[in-house]
Amino acid sequence: MPIAELINATRITYSPNDKKVPNGTILITNAGWTDRGNYTCVITTLSNTFERFTFIRVKDVYAALWPFIGIVVEVLLLGIIIFIFEKRRAKAEFEESDTDQGNDQKNTADLNKDSVRQRK
């Protein structure tokens, strides 16, 4: 069907294209989901007829917002997971240090008096 029959004529603007062909560019203002679809351009000359097909997609106003929100949510989840595991690891290390009876309290000077040089 011709575009004029499909869309309200007040939303369509015809203008010449880059090569000064009249009605070479069609501008649809306030395009909506109903404008999405396959469009055919038919060019008829005295001897030939040419057809070109294109599929028009209509983007939402907030189309760029959704990937941004996804990235923010992913970063928040990773931050929370890292925070939780670091807290658990620090708690485990703290409990381990309380029960550790390491060699820190031993006097190493008395063990090998002969081989250890003591400073005065």
From TrEMBL:
The organism encoding this protein is Cherax quadricarinatus
Q: Which InterPro entries does this entry report, sorted A to Z?
A: Ig-like_dom_sf (IPR036179), Ig-like_fold (IPR013783)
State which residue ranges cross the membrane.
64-85
Domain of life, source organism: Eukaryota
What are the start and end residues of every segment in region (Disordered)? 94-120
Q: Which SUPFAM superfamilies did the record assign?
A: Immunoglobulin (SSF48726)
For bias kind Basic and acidic residues, which ranges apply?
A: 111-120
- Name under which the protein is recorded: Basigin
Q: Which UniProt keywords apply?
A: Membrane, Transmembrane, Transmembrane helix
